[in-house]
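Protein modeling request. Please complete all fields; requests missing the sequence field cannot be processed.
Requester role: graduate student
Desired output: 3D structure, token encoding
Chains: 1
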Amino acid sequence: MTSAWMVRQGTGGAFAQEMIDAGYMGVDFIGNRDLTPHLAGGFEGFRHAVSELFRETNPEKTKLAAGQAVNTLWRAAQGIAEGDLILAAPKTGGQTYHYGIVSGGYEYHPGTDLPHRRPVTWTGSFNRDDMSEALTTSARYRATLLDMTPHATELAMLTQLGERAVRPTAQAITSEVQEQLAFQMEKQLEDFLVHNWASTSLGREYDIYDDGEQTGQQYLTDTGPMDILAISKDRKRLLVVELKRGRASDAVVGQIQRYMGYVQADLLEPGQIVEGVIIAQEDDNRIRRALSMTRNIRFMKYRVEFHLEPAAG
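Delivered output (313 residues):
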């Protein structure tokens, strides 16, 4: 399955048309610092080296802000693969999403507004009205670079790029559909929680991390992306939220502990602590046993409700 990404070019999409006309996608965050020497060592080496550069350039920023900026730079420079689908978010108030294919590796363009670039072959566009409600909801998430891979099937139809792929066998189709459905269900659960956060019990204690440019949804770590990273109202507790559709297995305990370990080692400021919450529709004895031996991790259940209402008129 080809990965799909959406990029926002400057505040309100100020550089979107320039990007499309010139055939690239780009980010900033760190200004005129060539990232090429730091790409060969993988994400871990990149993270340590570029975090130091970022803090030198932005000494007023928190570790949280630095981590999110560096993660975005990594994704833009190396995480996105040649052949991946790129969407250009429309300008504020706009309806048109342009799309293209990443056609090359990282390029450094000093002295420009977006010096860290990837060449893109822009090939077409579609209208916001053609998108499903789930895709529209995901696209509202404010981030410079957003992973849209959970919606790859719909995007392949909207962009008409799916027909370029070799037709798989029936068995492969079944496996791909099942994987895609599971992926989409967890993504929709995540989007629903994010957009209804203020009305949940968690929303009374915590805010989803937001520094004005990036938020804590899909916060990248060295062992994968956290579903949600939140911070308490008093700014003293960071909360790692892991979402699972249906029943959660005890394996998720180790997963959330890895994310919490990253937060503790790399993101906590003096006086802060890290907590975790696993959200699923059901638990079982295995996960209850595992959680009984952990600290600062709780389990919460979600409930899906279905309503029928008479049509207006």
